[in-house]
Each structure stands twice: as C-alpha cells, then as structure tokens.
Amino acid sequence: MGTFGIWHWLILGAVALLLFGGRGKVSDLMGDFGKGINSFKKGLSEKDDPKVINAEDTNKDKTTV
C-alpha cells in the first residue's frame, strides 16, 4: 500500500502529459486566465461608472409604454 502501483503511474503520466505536453499549454492557460481576469475587472469598472448607469436608465424610460 505504501508504494505506487501501475495505476498510480498511469494517472500521474496522464496528468503530466496534460500539463506539460504539446507546446506551451500551461502558458496558454495562464494567458487565457489573465484575459478573463482583465475582462472581469473591466466589467466591474463599467458597472460602477455613473455614465453607463445613467444611459441605462434613459434607455429604460424610452422603451416603457
């Protein structure tokens, strides 16, 4: 029980291939993660912008019958 069996090595190898296989998969994943964080921050800052809020309120008044 204290040693690695064949299944442990196979799973470990599969994880290593997923993380380090191919060309720069980890760096691509981190780049996508960074883009997501920047988009999230941009969305938060737009929501706090009073110009955007006032424009939304104006549009609601025009569509209400």
Could you walk me through the main structural features you see in this protein, from its secondary elements to its overall organization?
With about 60 residues, this protein is mainly alpha-helical. It has a domain at about 25-65. It is built from 3 helices and no strands. It has helices at about 5-20, 25-50, 50-65. The longest helix is centred in the middle third of the chain and has 24 residues, at about 25-50.
List strands and helices in order, with pairings.
Blueprint: H1 6-20, H2 25-48, H3 50-63
Gap from first CA to last CA: 73 Å
List how many beta strands DSSP finds.
0
Provide the β-strand percentage band: under 5%
Question: What's the story with the biggest beta sheet?
Answer: none
Low-confidence stretches: none
Order of helices and strands: HHH
Kindly state the percentage of residues in helix.
over 70%
> If you average the pLDDT, what whole number results?
76
User: How many helices in DSSP terms?
Assistant: 3
* Secondary structure category: mainly alpha
Short structural summary:
The protein is mainly α and 65 residues long.
Give structural attributes.
65 residues; mainly alpha; 82% helix
